[in-house]
Task: structure prediction
Amino acid sequence: MKKSTFIALFALAFAFVSAFSQIDQNKVNFTCGKQPTFMFNTSQGLNVICMGVDLDFNGSYTDGEEAPSWWRLPKADMDNYFKTNTLSGSASKICNFEFAGIKFPTRLAVSGDTLFVGLKDRIATYNTSSGALIDSIFITIDAHAISVDGNRLYVSKRVIPSGAWLPDTNFVFVVDRDAKSILDTIPARMNVQMTIPYSFNGNRYLAIAAEGTGASDASVEIINLDMESDKVAIIEPGSLVNHISLNKDKSEMLITLNGSHKLVRYNLGNFQINGEIATNTSGFNGPRESIYGNSGLIFSTTYESNLAILDNNSLISNVPLDGKAESVILLDESKNYLAVSLVSQKENYTANDKVTLFNLISLGISSENDAKISVYPNPSSDFINISSEINADNYEIFDISGAKILSNQFDQNARIDIRNLAAGSYILFVKSSDNAIAAKVIVKQ
Result:
């Protein structure tokens, strides 16, 4: 069986495992500052930037409010969790930032040992290892979002006219890190949320995601940086772009649309939409951030207090969370170890102070794509034959609700009678004492 086919089957199998609440048993929360909105991983551990709380939105501290802060869960504690599913340590505060200084959504940048933080009217820099302040005024720009590529920063700015929330003009400033000066100013569309510089096929590009006004006017502009800011594509995917991310080889972009309640997969080679994935959210509880995981999975946070697990075509599972989820990062390049920040309470928008860790590999399904299973004929209406490379002990078949339909002992080449199964899709698990692999089975009339 082809590797790509197995990856898709793994994603489907994973959805059914999550339906049995096994993921719930492998997640753990730790406490940090109020409203964690940005995370990054270093050799010292998992770092969390928290917005704090400005209850009256006046920019001045009063009792009961909290300054933005930086917290860290040590790497040793994080690694121990991924081995034992228990977290014995806790996060500690690295430093505070100026009150009401961190913007939302929080789009900071990390490059080597430097963290670039956009505050009220400037960008400050910090050492990612020690947390020490490097430069309190790296450059004077009221930055909304920051991204970095080598010697250049890309800094977005929202211009908001007096008396109105809608900006009339947005910019992305190109900043020389060494000279601490603005090299260029790129006009942008309304309400810039995020920028990503990337290289593909020998060319350098900049993706600029603009939220729009809430109507179907969100956009992502693709600019060729090697051709004097030449715009090569403008994507208008729907309402309220909140986040964009790239896959490993920079061939596809994932666009998260909070207003349209979907993810759009955009081909960066031919500048065409590869597909759309509905998140089945509604109202103000749409998707917030999405990333490509391993084994063909996509992970998306939502304000419905779920972590949505998707493949390239559809939503395959929702994992309940203990709050409205904002940021999500992959903690390991080869495994689905995740961290999700919980910015608000489930019931309302009261500030939360938790981050959830997931160890999805511990569910006992291989993500290495080494062991394979073959099912034929598929679809079938009477019998299926199974051939597996693992030394399996038994098999189980589940329907789409997660109910076990069939189970029995298994040898290396089994034949299963499915004549009593209703037409539809099922998941077949072939299991040994230390492994499990899965396949989608389609029963036809």
User: Anything to note?
Assistant: The radius of gyration is 23 Å.
